[in-house]
Amino acid sequence: MGHKREWTHYNKQLVNRGKIHFWISPKALKNWFAPRCKKNGHPFVYSDQLIQVICYVRFKFRLSLRETEGFISSFLAALRKQLRVPSYTQICRRMKTLQLPKELLERHNVTDIVLDTTGLKVYGEGEWLAEKYGGKKHWRKLHLAMDMKTGKLTLAEITDKHAHDTSFLEKALNNTNRRKGKVLFDGIADSLRCYQMSRNRNKQLLTPPKKGAIFREEPELKPRNDAIRIIRGFGNDQIGKSLWGKFVGYNRRVEIESMMSRWKRIYGGDLKSRCTERQKNEVQLKAMMINAMIDA
Questions:
Q1: What is the C-alpha R_g of the chain?
Q2: How many CB atoms lie within 10 A of CB 115?
Q3: Where in the chain is CATH 3.30.420?
Q4: With 0-12 CB in 10 A as exposed, 13-18 as middle and 19+ as buried, what is 54?
Q5: Which fold is adopted by the domain 107-258?
Q6: Tens of pLDDT along 1-34?
Q7: Is 176 in contact with 127 (CB distance < 8 Å)?
Q8: Burial of 27 by CB count in 10 Å (0-12 exposed, 13-18 middle, 19+ buried)?
Q9: What pLDDT digit, counting tens, does each position of 270-287 carry?
């Protein structure tokens, strides 16, 4: 059966996106500076928690590094707090080495997931020349996996633009539990390898078979054969695929498309960072912010 959206809850989420709340706890002020530790070189002045919060502010309001430094300085001045603020160069350097959680959600709570991929623009060297005289522009692939029960992101990862859309499927499956569940992916996942990975994790892969697909004997492809049989029974056309999606629950894949749209409305369709390490942390931080918004 189709999934019915809870509009009251959804409307509250939309309203909460525009709210601006700053809660300054004594613990946050206490952890403003980094704890003392023995290591080679000059120790960090500011804590990872502070750099993480500053990055949240930067990405939420789409600020440059210099604007972010000014925003935090003026905010502390309004609170009459005599605290030093990291410079924009410190924020940039520390973002590369931030220690972030490896998992967005605890895997034992995640049973059913839905996945999708989109492109993000990267501004870098030669961008002006490509804009003026033509040429290849730089972009990365953003892979997202979402828990169907809570609507939270379980995985957010970027890869090179030449990477296949299913290259992150195994990692997304490893972030789920071993209970019987479903994995929703678009038609690009219609391959024996994807069905095998899903079965190894005790998940049923729901993806529309390719046009002209035939029955196959591999035991991993039994869900695929069932999908072909149902689609043929409904007329073996686009309407048949749509009815199959409603019948097995594949129509809920629209939720990840809504998440992609939500991501780009909040953060834009680009990456602010240039080096790969900072880009990975940027995507991870943005995913953590979206999950926090859902909790709020």
A1: 22
A2: 24
A3: 107-258
A4: buried
A5: Nucleotidyltransferase; domain 5 (3.30.420)
A6: 455 678 888 788 778 767 766 666 676 677 888 8
A7: no
A8: exposed
A9: 998 888 899 999 999 999
